Amino acid sequence: MDFFETIRGRRSCREFLDRPVSAKDIETCLEAARLAPSGTNAQPWRFLVARRPGIRAALAEAGHGHSGLKQAPAIVALLGDRGLYRKRLRRAKELADIGALRPETLAALESRYLEKEKNAAGSRDAGLEDRAIQANCMLAGEHFVLAAAALELGCCWVGAFEADKVAEILKLNPKYNFPVALLALGYPADGSQPPRPRYSISDIAWKDEAGRPWEAGTA
Ligand SMILES: Cc1cc2nc3c(=O)[nH]c(=O)nc-3n(C[C@H](O)[C@H](O)[C@H](O)COP(=O)(O)O)c2cc1C
117-131: b or e for each residue (b if 16 or more CB lie within 10 Å)? Predict the structure, then answer.
């Protein structure tokens, strides 16, 4: 499917057919997610594919009984991974080795990283670190969602869930992993949905300075 056609046609899907999604299609979505960009190429994400009915039912409950989570034949838990995030300097060095990161930038990253580690000793700023991890995960999640749309699968990004319950159900090691989103995945049963309202470009884009509207079509 054409890229813009996919973007325009995608909807959050909350009703699913009772029909399994193939492992191949799930892997296509995972492949798209894997290729997402991330700061210093840290890739601080994990994807836990839940297909077992008991686990899905428990996740749906942790998601306040969301219809999509209840019905979807697969729920993909998008998880932040602090262990992978803490390897980001290694990833940055790999980038430098292949010429994708300038040596000066690597040196700056190294000193910033060492400074942060020093300050973090004993009092790691978990909030800041988790926010960075989460921001990267969001990009991978959207790659996943768009790949699902391109395969004409339905998907719903669910952010409203009890994180502690999800961590327990999925046996996460809370030292390293935390849930960012639950992605309900399956074949849509909610027909063709009209597009949800969006701000116009003029509403949200500015030209040269804050508050000066970008007038679509005339700029
Ligand atoms: C970060 C994030 C969290 C969301 N959380 C939920 C959720 O908890 N439950 C839900 O039904 N939809 C959720 N959505 C889907 C949005 O409601 C949906 O994207 C929005 O209404 C626009 O509709 P569309 O995706 O069909 O274009 C979430 C989407 C994002 C990006």
Answer: eeeeeeeeeeeebbe
pLDDT of residue 216: 76
Which residue CA neighbors atom 22 of ligand 1 most closely? 196
The backbone torsions φ and ψ at residue 46, rounded to the nearest 5 degrees and listed phi first, read -140, 155
187 lies in which domain range? 3-82+133-192
Q: Is the model's pTM score more than 0.85?
A: yes
Give per-residue pLDDT as tens, 114-135.
Answer: 887 777 655 567 799 999 999 9
Measured CA to CA, the distance from residue 158 to residue 216 in angstroms comes to 32
- Count of domains in the chain? 1
Q: Is 102 exposed, middle or buried (0-12, 13-18, 19+ CB in 10 A)?
A: exposed
- What is the pLDDT averaged over residues 170-174? 98
The answer to whether residue 101 is domain-embedded is: no
* 29 CA to centre of ligand 1 in angstroms: 18
Which has more pLDDT, 49 or 215? 49
Specify whether the CB–CB gap between 59 and 160 falls below 8 A.
Answer: no
Kindly give the distance from the C-alpha atom of residue 141 to the centroid of ligand 1, in angstroms, as a whole number.
Answer: 12
